[in-house]
Amino acid sequence: MSGGVDSAVAAARAVEAGHDVVGVHLALNRMPGTLRTGSRGCCTIEDSNDAWRACDRLGIPFYVWDFSERFKADVVDDFIAEYAAGRTPNPCMRCNERIKFAALLEKALALGFDAVCTGHYAKVVRGADGSPELHRAADWAKDQSYVLGVLTAEQLEHCLFPLADTPSKAEVRAEAARRGLSVAAKPDSHDICFISDGDTRGWLAEQIEMAPGYIVDEAGTKVGEHGGANAFTVGQRRGLRLGRPAPDGKPRFVLEVRPKDNTVVVGPERLLAVREIRGIRVSWAGRPPAEATGERWGEDFACDAQVRAHGDPVPARARLEAGPSGAPAAHDAVLVVTLDAPLRGVAPGQTVVLYQGSRVLGQATIDAARSLDRVA
């Protein structure tokens, strides 16, 4: 229970369904402070108190579990390391993968609980063979299946998402008000939870040793200078402060971050259009497509690809290729996704999630994104 309205209503529905429910708030921040600022941040003392009040209203036990050390190691340190390597990570994916549905679920099962129930907008259904499948929620505007794409079949067996079929967030808030939950009108949290002021670049500057370097265009010509390449991300337009305008007078965008030589490459917007994505650390949310396993491994299969939590899915074809070990079932296999229509500004470190209809097939961390125009 984060202290927000979604998890409070999810807990209420679980109680109403007859489950034996215990509310757990995760203490993830070692220095939580006492107050939120509007919709920024989470895991504060205020959030913990809101979760406790909701549990008190529902008549269920409430506990705070301190996962701050594991959160720092698995999410915050990973975030810093990825930016230091010139990639753009998604900390929500890592938190779901390593904290909420790994550390939390492991502890819950060890204590004898059957499932972790959360306020995520997503759905678990049973396939024709009885195995669990992850699907989009009824309200696509609030759908959070993308950030749950890292869940495995074993984890989905122990997940409950009571908000799956709720048609809108407005209905959740109205239900919270009817139930007398004090969080009914509480703002949603946004941005990166451990960067409460929203200034990612400023926060990174305190974590990573930044060094001045050059900004070059797609031909390698110096067009400006920067204070640290690690603070930039592919697709960025603002904050470049270029000394030399583009020949056509149009804005330039970050095309690539090269941490090894501390260089930022910029160019026209059209060179951000990506047609091929190569992903590593592949996982499947349930049974993988037949073409991705066994004797048919290496064949293309049709899917939709999504690279942002609230991005539009794009029709694509995907296949697995051998990684360094050369073994089809190996964790180091490479997922190659060819897009029917280009996506703009795809950065290494982001996550590509594959769908078929409403079903989540699986995900991979983007290792490379290829612009055919830039290759040409």
TrEMBL record:
<feature type="domain" description="tRNA-specific 2-thiouridylase MnmA-like central">
    <location>
        <begin position="203"/>
        <end position="267"/>
    </location>
</feature>
<feature type="region of interest" description="Interaction with tRNA">
    <location>
        <begin position="142"/>
        <end position="144"/>
    </location>
</feature>
<feature type="site" description="Interaction with tRNA">
    <location>
        <position position="120"/>
    </location>
</feature>
<feature type="active site" description="Nucleophile">
    <location>
        <position position="95"/>
    </location>
</feature>
<comment type="function">
    <text>Catalyzes the 2-thiolation of uridine at the wobble position (U34) of tRNA, leading to the formation of s(2)U34.</text>
</comment>
<feature type="site" description="Interaction with tRNA">
    <location>
        <position position="350"/>
    </location>
</feature>
<dbReference type="Pfam" id="PF03054">
    <property type="entry name" value="tRNA_Me_trans"/>
</dbReference>
<keyword id="KW-1015">Disulfide bond</keyword>
<feature type="binding site">
    <location>
        <position position="26"/>
    </location>
    <ligand>
        <name>ATP</name>
    </ligand>
</feature>
<dbReference type="InterPro" id="IPR046884">
    <property type="entry name" value="MnmA-like_central"/>
</dbReference>
<dbReference type="InterPro" id="IPR023382">
    <property type="entry name" value="MnmA-like_central_sf"/>
</dbReference>
<feature type="binding site">
    <location>
        <position position="119"/>
    </location>
    <ligand>
        <name>ATP</name>
    </ligand>
</feature>
<dbReference type="InterPro" id="IPR046885">
    <property type="entry name" value="MnmA-like_C"/>
</dbReference>
<dbReference type="GO" id="GO:0103016">
    <property type="term" value="F:tRNA-uridine 2-sulfurtransferase activity"/>
</dbReference>
<dbReference type="Pfam" id="PF20258">
    <property type="entry name" value="tRNA_Me_trans_C"/>
</dbReference>
<keyword id="KW-0819">tRNA processing</keyword>
<keyword id="KW-0067">ATP-binding</keyword>
<feature type="domain" description="tRNA-specific 2-thiouridylase MnmA-like C-terminal">
    <location>
        <begin position="275"/>
        <end position="366"/>
    </location>
</feature>
<comment type="similarity">
    <text>Belongs to the MnmA/TRMU family.</text>
</comment>
<keyword id="KW-0694">RNA-binding</keyword>
<dbReference type="InterPro" id="IPR014729">
    <property type="entry name" value="Rossmann-like_a/b/a_fold"/>
</dbReference>
<keyword id="KW-0547">Nucleotide-binding</keyword>
<keyword id="KW-0808">Transferase</keyword>
<dbReference type="Pfam" id="PF20259">
    <property type="entry name" value="tRNA_Me_trans_M"/>
</dbReference>
<protein>
    <recommendedName>
        <fullName>tRNA-specific 2-thiouridylase MnmA</fullName>
        <ecNumber>2.8.1.13</ecNumber>
    </recommendedName>
</protein>
<feature type="active site" description="Cysteine persulfide intermediate">
    <location>
        <position position="193"/>
    </location>
</feature>
<keyword id="KW-0963">Cytoplasm</keyword>
<keyword id="KW-0820">tRNA-binding</keyword>
<dbReference type="InterPro" id="IPR004506">
    <property type="entry name" value="MnmA-like"/>
</dbReference>
